[in-house]
Amino acid sequence: MKRNIKDLVKQMTLEEKASLCSGLDFWHTKPVDRLGIPSVMVSDGPAGLRKQDDKGDHLGINDSIKAVCFPSGCLTACSFDPDLLEKEGATIGDECLAEDVSVILGPALNIKRSPLCGRNFEYFSEDPYLAGEISAAYVKGVQSKNVGTSIKHFAVNSQEFRRMSCSSNVDERTIREIYFPAFEKTVKEGKPDTVMCSYNRINGVFASENKWLLTDVLRKEWGFDGYVVSDWGAVNKRVEGLAAGLDLEMPASGGTTDRQIVEAVKSGKLKEAVLDKTVERILRIVYKYKDGKTEGNFDKEAHHNLVAEIAKESMVLLKNEKNILPLKEKDAESILFVGAFAKTPRYEGGGSAHINTWKVTSALEAAKVAGLKVNYVQGFDIAEKKDKKLLPEAIEASKKAKTVVIFAGLPDSYESEGYDRKDMKMPLNQDILISEIAKVNKNVVVVLHNGSPVEMPWAKDVKAILESYLAGESVGTAQIDLLFGKANPSGKLAETFPVKTSDNPTFINFPGNGHDVNYAEGMYIGYRYYDKKEMEVLFPFGHGLSYTTFEYSNLKLSSKKILDTEKLEVSVKVTNTGKVFGKEVVQLYVTEKTGTHEDRPVKELKAFAKVALNPKESKVVTMTLDKRSFAFWNVELHDWYAPTGEYEILVGSSSRDIRLTAKVEVTSTAKGVFKINENTVLEELLEHPVAAKCAEPLVKKFMSGMLGEGRSEAEKAAVSDDMMMAMLYSMPLRALRSFLQMKDEEIAKFIEDTNKELSKY
Predict the structure, then answer these.
(1) CA distance linking residue 315 with residue 80, whole number of Å
(2) DSSP one-letter string for 652-681
(3) 3-class DSSP state of 202
(4) CATH fold for the domain made of 550-667
(5) pLDDT value at residue 21
(6) Which residues of the chain are in CATH 3.40.50.1700 domains?
(7) In which residue ranges of the chain is CATH 2.60.40.10 found?
(8) CB-count exposure of residue 173 (10 Å: 0-12, 13-18, 19+)
């Protein structure tokens, strides 16, 4: 049924309108019984449904319903498969319908600025393009069931330390290029019903009362038309927040902030029209769910099986020396599983992401179901208790095994919502276990359970490494299918694994002093930093091996020259040159080669495609680039700008495995981009074709005066021609007073005339 929300709001008293701006309790919006306005429930996600009762507590101290635990974002992003994420989202949407949950609080798409952020397991990637593609697909899936999503945490929330008060200090270009794009993509394409604002301040202003963030950018620029909800307890000043664009405060405030809103309207501090608009936004989403609600489907067994499929598509084979994997089923009795995680896997994160899982399948259980009689020893204690028996027992058993598979990783206590990691190290007892076993058995495979990168001092000593991340409740099924070749690994790393903690670009500035954290590294996080530094990494962004091999050929561009308003089609032929079925993630990066002095990363991911191929089969993969693929955020224009010039298209299997390249000329259609002033240096003028023509008389005058004939050899030795040219290039226009005796009014006239010419182009 179609409702007239505006008319409904007109019937409400001021107090009723104010009441709708905060929660009834931890998980419900308020009703207005007099007008038949219902209360609806929201619930944590997106790794599954964490539905609590009315006494819920956000951090999960009280029990929630038994539900299906899906893989965490750290793993699903490694699928590089938006279709898969849309399917997952639709499944979780079905569960929400079955449990009468109107909005699931997720996905979490903050950028992984540092590998030490305690909540990185929830976040998708260090790369904004990948995070946006994956997030938008998930949101589309959930909302196809008429259930809302709440993308979070908007914005620049990249740490847990003092997250409720610390100011993330970041420059305009960095926030636009790194920390906004995933949200922008999801808002524009996924169209989420709600956006959750973060706790932190941004350049000194709380996100919950940041008008530029919540109104100017989110609503006016990106067209968001849902409601903004606070993170739980994120409200600083309620009236100021409402005026800035924060609609719903969660959880309940005991009526305190409702009264503040009423008083602000009565005193004239807050316009009632602002409150009316907020109530309209909230009611539109409430009734969207209530009026469109259908019967849900919560088939736990079927969803448990889907979790395994998602995990298999996402786990990353980091190393496979001498093709030790896949293991042979006939050798099962000579294979030894070592490690507590083989029996009791770590498969999910803590805090608000924690699911009360109805069933968990470990690797040992999955092996048994598959009829594989592998051997097992515990090897280490997850709680890191000193037990002198476990290590010797594991070493002795490893001596007798043909192959040893060690299930290791980070315990729950090492990474969680609420605090950040101190370093990237795994528990010492596990590192020792792996190193010692590698000394007595040359066929060692390590299977990792972790939410973020770890140091691997033993990486060169083992034959294979399978990164499981936090794979959800069917973790063991996926691991066994991949280890024994029933499935072929196809995941690619959505983040870089540095060699050691101190290598990461935020090492000096993370997490700040508790009051401020300076994003001094700017746009150089993840692979952007490691590429710029030409630094060795343990495993690069986009890396992931397969049990087959792929050949790239026949890279084609739809055009060699385009305007920035046109799209560019890039196609490449991919062939499975191995003996088994496999999937390859084709990655496209763009490198700017225009010759401008604007600081740009070495390369940036701008497209990708996952292709499935049978042995010897070939397919042509086509990807599309647009202006944003070539542009950077110009702080003078406050807009995206792609400079005229040459760009290189790089296509490959990872950020450091580029197979093919091609070049394209892009012509900018932006007008008046370049303007000069008295501090513009001559080199900047000479780089621009229009400005260079205007500056020709000045350059000739300078060169004849300073580099003219008659200079002695001694003068040339003291002040060389090269030095004089360098001085010329770096000379600001105001210096022409001294070197060419130009008058101020002459310089001003030159600047005015040149800018007139520049405005035409």
Answers:
(1) 11
(2) EEETTEEEEEEEEEEE---SS-----TT-B
(3) strand
(4) Immunoglobulin-like (2.60.40)
(5) 98
(6) 305-532
(7) 550-667
(8) middle
* Residue located via tokens 């450091």: 656
Cβ-contact 99, 151 below 8 angstroms: no
Selection from 693, 663, 682, 691 nearest residue 755 by Cα: 691
**The residue to which tokens 């990486």 are assigned:** 459
Compute how many other C-beta atoms are within 10 angstroms of the C-beta atom of residue 718. Answer: 10
Give yes or no for a contact between 205 and 240, defined as CB atoms under 8 angstroms apart.
no
Position 438 scores a pLDDT of 98
Q: d(Cα 19, Cα 9) in Å, to the nearest integer?
A: 12
pLDDT tens by residue, 389-398: 999 999 999 9
Q: Which amino acid, residue 76?
A: T
What separation, in Å, do the N-terminal and C-terminal C-alpha atoms of the chain show? 53
Cβ-based neighbours of 646, under 8 Å, separated by 6 or more: 593, 594, 595, 663, 664, 665, 666
- Give me the pLDDT at residue 729, please: 76
| Structure confidence by residue, pLDDT tens digits, 672-729 | 677 889 998 888 888 787 888 888 887 777 766 665 556 566 666 666 767 767 777 7
* Active-site choice (81, 231, 420, 564): 231
**Residue at token pair 């000069």:** 676
What pLDDT was estimated at residue 560? 97
Question: For the chain, which residues score pLDDT lower than 70?
Answer: 1, 53-62, 672, 703-719, 721, 724, 761
Identify the three-state secondary structure at position 165.
Answer: coil
Find tokens 């819920």 and name the residue.
Answer: 56
Amino acid 705: pLDDT: 61
Q: Is residue 181 reached through a cis peptide bond, with omega within 30 degrees of 0 on the bond before it?
A: no
The CATH code belonging to domain 5-291 is 3.20.20.300
| 273 contacts: CB under 8 Å, gap ≥ 6 | none
The tokens describing 553, both together, are: 């050929």
User: Do residues 540 and 602 touch, judged by C-beta distance below 8 A?
Assistant: no
Residue in 666, 609, 608, 659 with CA at minimum distance from that of residue 632: 666
Go through the chain and tell me how many residues it has.
761
Question: What distance in Å separates the CA atoms of residue 564 and residue 671, rounded to the nearest whole number?
Answer: 12
Q: Check if the beta carbon of residue 317 is closer than 8 Å to that of residue 545.
A: yes
For residue 368, how many C-alpha atoms fall within 13 Å in the half-sphere facing its CB? 9
The span from the CA of 705 to the CA of 716, in Å, is: 14
Determine the Cα–Cα distance for residues 716 and 695; give it in Å rounded to an integer: 26
- pLDDT of res. 699: 76
Residue 615 tokens, joined: 């042995």
| Among 199, 195, 122, 139, CA closest to 164 | 199
- The CATH code that applies to domain 305-532 is 3.40.50.1700
8 Å CB contact between 160 and 420: yes
User: What does the alpha-carbon distance between residue 141 and residue 39 come to, in Å, rounded to a whole number?
Assistant: 24
Which single residue is written with the structure tokens 């179609």?
2
> Taking the model in full, what pTM does it have?
0.94
Active site residue 531: no
| Residue in this structure with the two tokens 């976040």, named with its chain if needed | 123
Rounded to the nearest 10 degrees, how much is the dihedral formed by the CA atoms of 685, 686, 692, 697? 100
Q: Which among 214, 177, 212 is positioned nearest to 198, based on CA atoms? A: 214
pLDDT of residue 708: 58
Strands 227-230 and 444-449: unpaired
